[in-house]
Amino acid sequence: MTEKILIVEDDRDIRKNLARLLESEGYEVASAENGQVALDYLKRATKLPDVILLDLMMPIMDGFQFREQQESVGRLSSIPVVIMTAGGNIEEKKIALGARAAFKKPADVESILETLKHIA
After folding, report:
1. Which domains does the chain have, with CATH numbers?
2. Which residue of 5, 8, 21, 67 has the lowest C-beta tally within 10 Å?
3. Which of 60, 62, 38 is nearest to 51 (CA)?
4. Residue 2 — pLDDT band, cuts 50, 70, 90?
């Protein structure tokens, strides 16, 4: 089972509500408001997350740029990613980014929880 999750989401309310929900399900949660903050967090983390929930459209560093950077850093490249986006072509984006799963926002909470149980 996934134990630690990093939420990378620029919408403060979505980020906080998702973190609360996941914590209530027993997960350890860290969060970042954009890809750059997430990358900085990961580079200095002693315990890496088991999975990253990644929004694609964010300021400063979007999900596409984050994923490119994540894959270029050896110890970070193997962390599974689940995409969350309000945009279209979800399946194509999932494949292009090598993500394990993808959800259209607003995402169905039960689907996210079920996916997280089987990822790590």
Report:
1. 4-117 (3.40.50.2300)
2. 21
3. 38
4. low
Lowest pLDDT segment from 41-45, 51-55, 92-96: 92-96
Predicted model pTM: 0.91
Cis peptide before 106 (omega within 30 of 0): yes
Structure tokens at 44: 């200095």
What Rg value do the Cα atoms of the chain yield, rounded? 13
- Which residue has tokens 């990644």? 54
φ, ψ dihedrals at 57, nearest 5°: -100, 105
